[in-house]
Amino acid sequence: MKNFAAPSFRLRDASFEIRLVYSLFLLFILGGLATTWFFQFQRIGLSYDRIVAYYLGGDIGGQIFFPKNLNALLEETHFHAFSMSVVFLILAHLFMATSLSKGTKLFFILTTFFSHVFDIGGTWLTRLVSPTFAYLLILSWLGLWLGYGGMIGVPLWEMWLSNPQKLR
Fold it and tell me: Which of 27, 50, 125, 141 makes the best surface tag, with the fewest CB within 10 Å?
């Protein structure tokens, strides 16, 4: 952690051991996010009709879904707000130690943050206000994939591929 106290610290300059630990963490997170995204795609899907059926009730591929009640929405919100905020904090922290420009870092970090806000809010809005907010969910999921893809991929690339002499 002391490395991050120095404003000039960059992941590509870290020791082999630190890069290894950070990389293993990033791979674990990538695995967790990949299974989440696969579950999301399999269970809900990426189409307006499937999202509406999932939250308001309906048929998805022969499986009947009941409208999500208040408890289901609260449970989903609780889980996402607590667990994903920690994932976001750690990934953003690592991402800030890359050599990307300040503007690019802000783009990825803010895209990811607001995509989380829209993801959590979009479920409530879709269920309680209008099914049209399903489009907000699609947009937020695309933003999350883009944001987390960058926040995982760029640090891995910088630690291992941006400086081939540093592989040892």
Answer: 27
Q: Is residue 3 part of a domain?
A: no
Q: Which residues of 119-150 are buried (b: 16+ CB within 10 A; e: fewer)?
A: bbebbbbbbeeebebbebbeebbebbeebbeb
Question: How many domains does the structure of the chain reveal?
Answer: 1
Range of the domain at 61: 14-167
State pTM to two decimals.
0.88
pLDDT digits (tens, 9 = 90+) for 80-112: 999 999 999 999 999 999 999 999 999 999 999
pLDDT digits (tens, 9 = 90+) for 6-33: 667 889 889 999 999 999 999 999 999 9
Q: Angle 85-96/16-43 helices, nearest 10 degrees?
A: 140
